[in-house]
Design the sequence.
């Protein structure tokens, strides 16, 4: 498993240890260095013990539902904040009415979880960091680093203290003891502790190591236990509060969808009726055309109109060339000095081969024809020794 220890939710330099079946060294560094180690690992998040109250109470039942109801009220007097704002987890002791309890503000716990989620990590377990301290039967463990003090008094119990409160805490731990209490100690103030006759000091020599036995027992007091159940309970409470409004909204949506469906059906019926009328009209206009799809009626109508227009153009080009010949005769009289060699008429086009004494007469002829016909006249000419031969094309592509 990967154990991550944070001092604040936005801690830029986390501490971590990859814990298997043997002690692991604590590492310190950046998130970039930590992230590759998280792949495929169960993640245990250690948060400051000052955020968590570890305590015990006595409840004469082992029924989980009854415990869930009894423990908050048994501890109500020792909780300063509103009870409804607290997240409470517990672990019963075998053959005893004693129950070990951990309490944390619900919003604070979620803040710690979100701190890891911001780095795409999801913890399976959240514990107070004093559970990283080693422990043994009949032995206290105390770490003191500057203004930070952690005391582990048992498998699932301990305290986070300040230097000012430490004397009172130690008095409570040694009260009623006739023999010195065994104290596993890591401290940067060892001289102060050496003179205290209430304790038998066992120096801690492996302060930068995390032992599997330190966490294994504490996993039973996982602060995430029941958090999802609380979320579901809150959802149920909100649902009970808003279910009438949600029901009305759902009913309104069903009615709106029904009205929309009815309107759509009526519009579809009207559309089909219009399609039938259009098909009937098309059949009357074009009786030779069958099997027309209503969806392609517009394009089919356009193609039929183009076909009719094309047939009309073809008919127009088969008209008599006499008007063009008459225009040529009138123009030749105006130009003068022209003689016709031959005339050929084709569909939509008239070709006149003629001869003139000079190019100017041919140009005059073409200009006169273009003005009278209102269309371009193509002319090709070639000069001989004493005349100019030309071919005029009327009605062709110039």
Sequence:
């Amino acid at each position: 498993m990967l154990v991550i220890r944070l001092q604040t939710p936005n801690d830029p330099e986390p501490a971590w240890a990859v814990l298997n079946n043997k002690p692991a060294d604590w590492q310190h560094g950046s998130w970039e260095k930590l992230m590759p180690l998280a792949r495929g690992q169960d993640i245990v998040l250690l948060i400051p013990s000052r955020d968590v109250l570890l305590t015990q109470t006595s409840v004469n039942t082992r029924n989980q539902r009854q415990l869930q109801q009894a423990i908050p009220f048994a501890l109500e007097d020792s909780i300063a904040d509103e009870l409804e704002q607290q997240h409470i987890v517990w672990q019963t002791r075998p053959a005893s009415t004693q129950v070990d309890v951990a309490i944390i503000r619900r919003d604070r716990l979620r803040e710690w979880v979100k701190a890891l989620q911001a780095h795409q990590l999801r913890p399976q377990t959240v514990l107070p960091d004093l559970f990283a301290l080693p422990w043994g039967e009949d032995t206290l463990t105390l770490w003191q680093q500057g203004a930070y003090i952690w005391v582990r008094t048992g498998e699932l119990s301990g305290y986070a203290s300040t230097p000012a409160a430490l004397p009172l805490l130690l008095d409570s731990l040694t009260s009623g003891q006739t023999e010195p209490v065994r104290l596993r100690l890591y401290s940067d103030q060892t001289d102060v502790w050496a003179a205290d006759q209430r304790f038998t000091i066992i120096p801690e020599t492996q302060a930068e190591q995390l032992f599997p036995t330190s966490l294994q027992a504490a996993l039973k007091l996982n602060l995430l236990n029941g958090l999802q159940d609380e979320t579901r309970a809150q959802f149920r409470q909100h649902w009970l509060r808003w279910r009438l409004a949600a029901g009305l909204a759902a009913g309104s949506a069903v009615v709106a969808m029904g009205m929309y469906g009815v309107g759509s059906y009526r519009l579809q019926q009207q559309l089909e009726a219009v399609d039938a009328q259009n098909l009937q009209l098309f059949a009357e206009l074009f009786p030779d055309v069958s099997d027309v799809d209503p969806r392609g009626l517009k394009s089919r109508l356009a193609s039929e109109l183009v076909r009719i227009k094309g047939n009309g153009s073809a008919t127009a080009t088969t008209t008599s060339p006499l008007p063009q010949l008459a225009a040529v005769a009138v123009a030749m009289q105006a130009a003068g000095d022209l003689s016709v060699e031959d005339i050929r008429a084709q569909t939509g086009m008239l070709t006149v081969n003629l001869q003139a004494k000079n190019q100017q007469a041919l140009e005059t002829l073409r200009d006169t024809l273009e003005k009278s016909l209102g269309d371009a006249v193509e002319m090709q000419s070639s000069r001989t020794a004493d005349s100019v031969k030309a071919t005029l094309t009327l009605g062709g592509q110039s």
